[in-house]
Amino acid sequence: MRNKAFITNYYLMLIPGMILLVMFSFVPLFGIAIAFENFNAGLGIWRSEWVGLDNFTYMFQLSDSRVIFMNTIYLAVMKIIANLIVPLIFALLLNEVRKMAFKRFVQTIVYLPHFLSWVILAGIVTDMFSYHGIVNQFFGVFGFKPVLFLASNTWFPGILVGSDVWKEFGFNTIIYLAALTGINPSLYEAAAIDGAGRAKQLWHVTLPGIKPTIVLLATLSLGNVLNAGFDQIYNMYNPLVYSSSDIIDTYVYRVGLLNVQYGLATAVGLLKSVVSLLLIGVSYTLASKFANYRIF
Amino acid sequence: MVKTRSLSSNSADVLIYLFLGIVMISTLYPLWYTVAVSFSDSSAAAGGLVKWRPVHFNLAAYHEIMSDRKFFKAFLISIERVVLGTSISFVITLLMAYPLSKENAIFPGRNIIMWFLVAMMLFNSGLIPWYMTIKSYGMLDSIWALVLPYAVPVFNIILVINYFRGLPKELDEAGMVDGAGAWYLLLKIYLPLAVPVMATVTLFSIVFHWNAFFDGLILMNKPAHYPLQSYVQQLVININTAELTTDQLQSLSQLSNKTLNAAKIVVTMVPVLIIYPFLQRYFVHGITLGSVKE
């Protein structure tokens, strides 16, 4: 039915994209060799000294590595949990709003921070939480002493998680709202006839209705356990809070590009990529098995 | 529906509206606060007098930005980056999504190419090899280093593929019976139908390129080549150089020019705020169509 000319044209359409993908995604993979080398920029990848797994053993001996790994997991898991729950609650409340104009107005506003960069938002958040910032002024009214939030290892991780939720909860609500519109309205009518109030309808109709979506999002977020958010932390942290908020990505940047330890940084990055890929594989398998989810 | 509403239901409504109102204000306040600071007198802002509205309204900070040639240059570089990056990605996304939306039986090799795309999306080489590769192409300090590495947005392509797969298969067959070729079908049939999803991925692309700061910092050796976010990052954020003590951190928050920084932040936000209302009506539709499947 379909002739050869069609298939040839399909391949022609793919050529520009494939060339760029090979140049900027595939070719850099050869650079992974740096992780197994005592890399010397003057000699290049092919002629630098081969040292096997030295960079990896050195990485595990570093006193920082444990802290950085724990920080990454801790911050990422906290963000994952908060970013699943807060949007869910928000979507459920928004779903109860019957005035469409108000609903749309709220949505328009809460989606907005998602589209602003961490450079901008870090500037704003840092200013608000600074020593003389608006947050300290506000709590000062109630007699609290000003706190150096951004220099405190106790407060700073919370601010990271909180501001991340603040930025993303609106946007993450979209997927829940889409699932909520998929629930059959006759279920609500039937529940109302059976005497269920709003709370009972929420519990027996709404939540079971979006349970698959919740399970799906929770499963897929497993792949992000090592992604604690480079852009945010890079723009918000400072040396005083390294011990609570230095993560793998910020560490790779500092050690690799700033201190020019290419071998070590590449090894750390490679380990992260491999573990992340495994986690994504596991989460995708689980998602396709239990939630019947397919990417394409 | 209205009749079944009881008194308790009404008080629940009041609570819900109240709560949503508070959430809305707390989302908007930090942004509004920054706008207010940028229009305030700099000493009033430094003294922490700004709460809800500008104190001693003036445009001094904006005048200073207007006379800052570097800021203006960085702004133009960002515009150039967005225009180039988004148009290249638009063409490539469309060109790749159309053939890849066909079944493997119709387009042999489709599945292999698809897995290659997904593999490239999921497994990346890490920062150092990526940087070295771009360096080896001689692209450092060039606008192409900010555009070409992101020219194939695999995630967006998958969204568009899923959208195309939702269209009736008869489109192709009807077109072929009428003698249309693959290019004609793509440009005259699929492209007009793809407006919602293409608007969505275009919004993503514009926002991505506008907001990117890190690649500018590492791939541009000369600060004169920085796009706006990198430039602002250097000025507003990067004051926390390596050896700050707690005391210095305290005094810095007083000393730094709050109004000027706020004005820079506001100007950097403006382009996103301008395009946002136009594309917002598309993206909710676009995302849910592309990602949630039966």
From TrEMBL, chain A:
Superkingdom assignment: Bacteria
Domain ABC transmembrane type-1: 69-283
Keyword presence, Ligase: no
Gene3D superfamilies to which the protein is assigned, alphabetical: MetI-like (1.10.3720.10)
Membrane-crossing residue ranges in chain numbering: 12-36, 68-93, 105-126, 138-162, 169-188, 262-287
PROSITE patterns per UniProt: ABC_TM1
Membrane-topology annotation of the record: Multi-pass membrane protein
InterPro entries per the UniProt record, alphabetical: ABC_transporter_permease, MetI-like, MetI-like_sf
GO CC annotation: plasma membrane
Pfam families: BPD_transp_1
Main location per the UniProt record: membrane
Record keywords: Cell membrane, Membrane, Transmembrane, Transmembrane helix, Transport
Biological processes annotated in GO: transmembrane transport
Localization annotation: Cell membrane
Family listed: Belongs to the binding-protein-dependent transport system permease family.
Name by which UniProt lists this protein: Sugar ABC transporter permease
Source organism of the structure: Paenibacillus albus
From TrEMBL, chain B:
Subcellular location: Cell membrane
InterPro entries: MetI-like (IPR000515), MetI-like_sf (IPR035906)
SUPFAM superfamilies tied to this protein: MetI-like (SSF161098)
Gene Ontology cellular-component terms listed: plasma membrane
Gene3D superfamilies: MetI-like (1.10.3720.10)
The keyword Transmembrane belongs to this UniProt entry's keyword annotation: yes
Record family assignment: Belongs to the binding-protein-dependent transport system permease family.
Protein name per UniProt: Carbohydrate ABC transporter permease
UniProt organism field: Paenibacillus albus
Lineage, broadest ranks: Bacteria, Bacillati, Bacillota, Bacilli, Bacillales
